[in-house]
Amino acid sequence: MDFTAQIRSALQSQSFPTPSINPETPEAVLHKDVPCQVLDVENLSLSRWEQVEELEAVARGEQTTGRRVVRLVSAEEPEYDNLDEGSGAGAAGGGGRATQQMQQQMQQRRNATHRIVLQDFKGQKVYAMELRRIERIGIGSTNVGEKIMLKKGTVIARGTVLLEPDKCVLLGGKIDTWQRAWLEGRMARLKEAVEGERQ
């Protein structure tokens, strides 16, 4: 057997078993590790309009964390330093509200439940849902085209993969053209759905 045939046979065994992803199968367990990639991410704990706002914030680059805001101080304000940590008395007026809003968003992100669409190497698509929170899964942190390894023992119930932190590994990666198309298409679909609900 040549090298390509060995790779193909190895990959054949590393895809979703067809009966297990059938919605009529009550429950199945993966017997081998299965590599797959992310095609879609949805935050189920937010309304559609909140999802639109979240996607717009990601597009503006507002979802990044761990950065400090540096304010330029005018000569008339010597009592303020030029570093705004966003807490305490130095955060006057809008700064306090912004800090509160940011803390609320962080809490929402910690309590969020996400549904993602996964695709194996054969092109089979399946929904996956967080059974327990996985920090690296979320809008703005999980990219379209990112690779995930579902470990042996992962449960698939009614055609949906149940994600747990100890049963999957996010390997990273991104396909830029897919990510851009997903972001634009997702925002348009959500706005269309919101408009449809208002009428």
Automatic annotation (TrEMBL):
InterPro entries: RMI1_N_C_sf, RMI1_OB. Residues 80-103 are annotated as: Disordered. Residues 25-186 form the RecQ mediated genome instability protein 1 OB-fold domain. This is RecQ-mediated genome instability protein 1. Residues 87-97 have a biased composition (Gly residues). It holds the Pfam family RMI1_N_C. It comes from the Eukaryota.
